[in-house]
Amino acid sequence: MTGKTRGFIGMLALMSLGTGCGKAAAPFDQIKDGSVVAYRLQNYEPAATTTPTTTPTTPPAAGGVAIPGVPAEIQQWINQGAAGLKQLIPPGLVPPELLQGLGGGTATPTPAGTPAVDTTPRFPDTPPNFRILGQTQVVDPVLKKQLMKVFGKKSAFQLEHANCLYAEFGLRFGVPPAPANDVLVSFSCNQVAARGFAWPYPATGLKPETVKKLSAVINKLFPPGT
Q1: Which of residues 76 and 50 earns the better pLDDT score?
Q2: pLDDT for 44 beyond 60
Q3: CB 211 within 8 A of CB 198
Q4: Nearest-angstrom CA–CA distance, 34 and 8
Q5: Per-residue pLDDT tens digits for 148-197
Q6: Comparing C-alpha atoms, which of 100, 76, 99, 101 is closest to residue 89?
Q7: How many C-beta neighbours within 10 Å does residue 166 have?
């Protein structure tokens, strides 16, 4: 091997290291070895002091059901089958007959006269935040690696998304004692948002393939019916 050949190979190796080939962008590179908690979130709740009204929207898709008080983006998402993530539909938000039609369980109605006192934990810690419907510690290294791959790549995101943020899923990760990083994921609005750190990419919209990969992980973290 000539000196020129060795030099060329060395230059390629340095270029590969410089581009971070195969590595996740910071801070998502912390997911693999850090503490990770996943959250099911209630994406929307009508104001308690007002009578909910249906947001002006186009008629629901064929076979869809209009849900009073629910924003158009969420209603469209539900009528499309909730992108294969029925377990993220908040209980009580959808009429039981529609939820059963989507393969979900029966929603439990709120008893009349129940005091409007909000004691439900929320994510993230500071507003705007969302009610936590369920949470789980992510300990499976395979699932952590999959999450790192989904969020750690610039190519997973696009500029196109709806102008809203009704989050159905949240992720908190980090390496103690450093502060945790929070991510909100809104499938109904097709975008994500960062809390506690600067989003590292110019785009926040979810690409169809990203939705598919993230949905597969969520279905393992929160199996349908749980």
Answers
A1: 76
A2: yes
A3: no
A4: 37
A5: 999 999 999 999 999 999 999 999 999 999 999 999 999 999 999 999 99
A6: 99
A7: 21
CB 210 within 8 A of CB 156: yes
Contact 38, 138 (CB under 8 A): yes
- pLDDT at site 95: 52
Cβ-proximal residues to 211 (8 Å cutoff; 6+ apart), any chain? 83, 187, 190
**Three-state SS annotation for the chain:** CCHHHHHHHHHHHHHHHHCCCCCCCCCHHHCCCCEEEEEEECCCCCCCCCCCCCCCCCCCCCCCCCCCCCCHHHHHHHHCCHHHCHHHCCCCCCCHHHHHHCCCCCCCCCCCCCCCCCCCCEECCCCCCEEEEEEEECCCHHHHHHHHHHHCCHHHEECCCCCCCCCCEEEEEECCCCCCEEEEEECCCCEEEEECCCCCCCCCEECHHHHHHHHHHHHHHCCCCC
Question: Hey, what are 20's tokens?
Answer: 């971070």
Instruction: Extract the tokens encoding 3.
Output: 């000196």
Contact 184, 165 (CB under 8 A): yes
Q: What whole-number distance in Å separates Cα of residue 37 and Cα of residue 170?
A: 8
153 to 22, 32, 71, 149, 211: CA distances (angstroms): 9, 14, 30, 6, 14
> Which amino acid, one-letter code, is at 12?
L
